[in-house]
């Protein structure tokens, strides 16, 4: 598979093979061409760019360490995405080990028109997600953005499915409140 970046074409298969052989130049090429993708992935889990950059660095270390395990019959971007998400989850576990998850079944749902999000930019939505607590942000990102099942989230985070549902519900409620307040303030300007 060939990719074009800055008018330069590179052969992803050759770069991956170079990384498997611990070639610093191949690692640099892979980093340069996938760092923006990594930032998009990790930004959903981080409260700021510094945290996202730490997740990215950890993720690339894991990519380079485990690239020999990558099976080339599957798309590299999918494998890379999974490594970056797991890196973000590992960062969360390492840095938020004292945070407790709420173990509840349901939280009151506010009336909210999901179509109002269509008028917000991606950066505005990401800003709201980043305002969430680490627990809410992680559960929200895993469930809503990356499509993990409750059971998968519970397993990866070491909590119950009920805790996942409860924290996801709280995260959605907070986001709905913030977005509604923001849009009302914009309408009153």
Give the gist of this structure:
With 189 residues, this protein is mainly alpha-helical. 66% of the residues lie in helices and 4% in strands. The protein is built from eight helices and two strands.
Give descriptors for this structure.
Rna Polymerase Sigma Factor, Chain: A; 189 residues; Arc Repressor Mutant, subunit A; two-stranded antiparallel ribbon
- Gap from first CA to last CA: 50 Å
Q: What would the average pLDDT be, to the nearest integer?
A: 84
Give the helices and strands as they follow along the chain: EEHHHHHHHH
Range of strand content: under 5%
User: What is the CA-based Rg, rounded?
Assistant: 19 Å
- CATH fold node name of the largest domain: Rna Polymerase Sigma Factor, Chain: A
**In the CATH classification, which architecture of the largest domain applies?**
Orthogonal Bundle
Describe this structure in words.
By secondary structure, the protein is mainly α. The protein folds into 2 domains: 2-95, RNA polymerase sigma factor, region 2, helix turn helix motif (Rna Polymerase Sigma Factor, Chain: A, Orthogonal Bundle), CATH 1.10.1740; 114-187, Winged helix-like DNA-binding domain superfamily/Winged helix DNA-binding domain (Arc Repressor Mutant, subunit A). The protein contains 8 helices and 2 strands; from the N terminus they run ββαααααααα. The chain has helices spanning 12-20, 24-43, 49-66, 76-95, 122-131, 134-145, 150-157, 161-187; strands spanning 2-5, 8-11. A two-stranded antiparallel sheet has the order 1-2. A hairpin with a 2-residue loop joins strand 1 (2-5) and strand 2 (8-11). Helix 1 (12-20) packs across helix 2 (24-43), helix 2 (24-43) packs across helix 3 (49-66) and helix 2 (24-43) packs across helix 4 (76-95). The N and C termini lie far apart (50 Å).
């Amino acid at each position: 598979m060939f990719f074009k970046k800055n008018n330069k074409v590179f052969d992803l298969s050759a770069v991956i093979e170079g990384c498997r052989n611990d070639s610093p130049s191949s690692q640099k090429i892979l980093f340069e061409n996938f760092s923006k993708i990594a930032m998009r992935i990790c930004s959903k889990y981080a409260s700021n760019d510094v945290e996202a950059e730490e997740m990215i660095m950890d993720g690339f270390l894991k990519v380079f360490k485990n690239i020999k395990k990558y099976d080339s019959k599957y798309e590299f971007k999918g494998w890379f995405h999974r490594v970056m998400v797991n890196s973000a989850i590992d960062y969360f576990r390492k840095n938020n080990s004292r945070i407790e998850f709420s173990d509840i079944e349901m939280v009151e749902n506010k009336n909210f028109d999901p179509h109002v999000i269509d008028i917000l930019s991606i950066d505005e939505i990401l800003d709201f997600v980043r305002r969430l607590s680490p627990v809410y942000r992680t559960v929200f990102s895993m469930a809503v953005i990356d499509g993990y099942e409750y059971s998968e989230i519970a397993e990866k985070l070491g909590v119950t499915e009920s805790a996942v549902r409860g924290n996801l519900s709280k995260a959605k409620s907070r986001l709905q409140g913030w977005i509604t307040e923001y849009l009302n303030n914009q309408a009153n300007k």
